[in-house]
Amino acid sequence: MNLLNMAKKSVDIVSSHWDLNHTHPSACQGQRLFEKLLQLTSQNIEIKLVSDVTADSKVLEALKLKGAEVTYMNMTAYNKGRLQSSFWIVDKQHVYIGSAGLDWQSLGQMKELGVIFYNCSCLVLDLQRIFALYSSLKFKSRVPQTWSKRLYGVYDNEKKLQLQLNETKSQAFVSNSPKLFCPKNRSFDIDAIYSVIDDAKQYVYIAVMDYLPISSTSTKRTYWPDLDGKIREALVLRSVRVRLLISFWKETDPLTFNFISSLKAICTEIANCSLKVKFFDLERENACATKEQKNHTFPRLNRNKYMVTDGAAYIGNFDWVGNDFTQNAGTGLVINQADVRNNRSIIKQLKDVFERDWYSPYAKTLQPTKQPNCSSLFKLKPPSNKTATDRAGGKEAWSV
What we know:
By secondary structure, the chain is an alpha/beta fold. The chain has helices at 2-6, 28-41, 58-65, 75-79, 104-108, 121-136, 189-199, 226-238, 255-265, 291-294, 322-327, 346-358, and strands spanning 10-14, 18-19, 46-52, 69-73, 87-90, 94-98, 102-103, 114-117, 161-165, 168-177, 187-188, 203-208, 211-212, 214-216, 221-223, 241-247, 275-280, 306-309, 312-315, 320-321, 330-337, 363-364, 366-367, 379-380. The protein is built from 12 helices and 24 strands.
């Protein structure tokens, strides 16, 4: 709402979901945003919106009738995928990028995380080119063989934007997925994540809704080692501490626990190899609800999609699942900061968020049984003698 209240000339939004109206009490936040967007269209503010072609949205149709320009991307035709990007550009000066989409559940039911840049036209210029790339695909059934130079990246992993963020000397660049959507000078999301992990000297903290190094088609599933292998490399070859915080919900693939067990096993009897994993569960009491009960409730999830190290952060739109990076459209942001002692630095803030969640009562070590979709059938690993405590409130947390 703050971004929209600042808008004087233009608002550009990319979102995979556009469902801001519902009778649920927590839908009021989405309704407020919808009303504000309708108000802006009547104030001669240019509104441009990008959505996946599969979105059947009354919100988009209503905004279109009021004068908003709506572009539908057919990711199924381009790459057999879907649009997952989520970012806002306001007046070509201010930016939001993160996990939240424009639907009432994302705004009122889910635990999302993003970052806002105010008065940062240089970064906006780069993100604006990704928005322009999406818009250029309007009415096209295939991706062009060569991209216009106007869509080339301005900054990448080799040439980062130098800037001050919260009084902290920083570097930043925007990445993109899939590889098909990376014109010249645009870093691929996987390469961006590699750069963050490779620069880590002490620790890598990862928070995602789903972790599954598998790439699936309608006929087969294959191992997708890109990120899983990079974690193993950091653990074994460089002795970097790794913490994985993964959401636990009814759609969690049972194979997730197999891969986590495999990651843990690699540290067996290796000095200075430290991997810890916790599952974040906001719905333990409802996980085994009857079908009738579930029809009247909506899931609450931790949908964060970020990574933070001792010197950098990556905030994106994807879970760490093979198909997301290989097929879907998403955008990431990398921020490097040398001095992270400043309490206002992005790195320090993200580290604090991760540790708050890590030591919260919702983060637990689970021992899967043969029925992984019902969390009451998982056994909590009892705390050791050195039980961790929540730094904020002194609440007990289960140890790993």
